[in-house]
Design a protein that fits this description.
Number of domains: 1
Largest sheet: none
Domain At2g35280-like TPR: 43-127
Helix content: 55-70%
Protein name: At2g35280-like TPR domain-containing protein
Shape: globular
Number of helices: 11
Number of strands: 0
């Protein structure tokens, strides 16, 4: 692992005046609240080198651990139900990446109302940048996972195409008629390009 992508580069070290004695801290709280942003970007690291750490975080309901486990189950192990369970659980624990991915997968699987509900939790009408950030994080997480495209994803994207005349190529301009289609189209195009 290179120095730029080292786990240590993602650990926040505050100055000594903020130091607290954690020798008696509750492990449940520790594993639930520890940031796993490094592993969100490198999910295979949790699968191969840090499996026990991942299990401890899952046991203690860490939202990022559930998101990572969902990615691994859904896209690597091809265990769709287990993957969706963990991604949904991450979303219910208010993980924005989990909300985004669960909403996107629900759209891709043809569960439009549920997909829209989860994407709407990101308040895209007021702040599109949250969805954009989640999309970039998702692409980064799946950069090393091949062949994620399913015909069903494309078919469900076509069914979402808006009847109104929206600029379907411009992600900066979205409305309630085209937002969901544009997000699913992004995902489908990404999946096609991975094959």
């Amino acid at each position: 692992m290179g120095s730029d992508k080292s786990v240590n580069n993602y650990i926040d070290i505050s100055d000594s005046s903020d130091y607290e004695d954690y020798s008696n801290s509750d492990p449940t709280s520790y594993f639930r609240n520890i940031s796993l942003r490094y592993f969100v970007a490198e999910p295979f690291e949790m699968l191969t080198k840090h499996a026990r750490f991942k299990e401890l975080c899952l046991e203690n309901d860490n939202p990022e651990a559930h998101y990572i486990e969902g990615l691994l189950q859904y896209f690597v192990h091809k265990e769709k139900r287990k993957g969706l369970f963990h991604i949904r659980h991450s979303a219910t624990l208010n993980n924005t990446n989990g909300m985004y991915l669960y909403g996107l997968l629900m759209l891709a699987l043809g569960h439009y109302p549920k997909g829209k509900k989860y994407l709407d939790k990101l308040q895209w009408k007021e702040k599109l940048s949250t969805s954009d950030h989640c999309w970039e994080s998702f692409k980064n997480s799946l950069s090393s996972i091949p062949a994620i495209m399913k015909n069903r994803y494309y078919e469900n994207m076509v069914n979402l195409k808006p009847e109104r005349q929206c600029d379907l190529d411009n992600m900066a301009e979205v409305c309630k008629h085209c937002y969901y289609f544009k997000r699913l189209n992004q995902f489908v195009q990404f999946a096609i390009n991975k094959e």
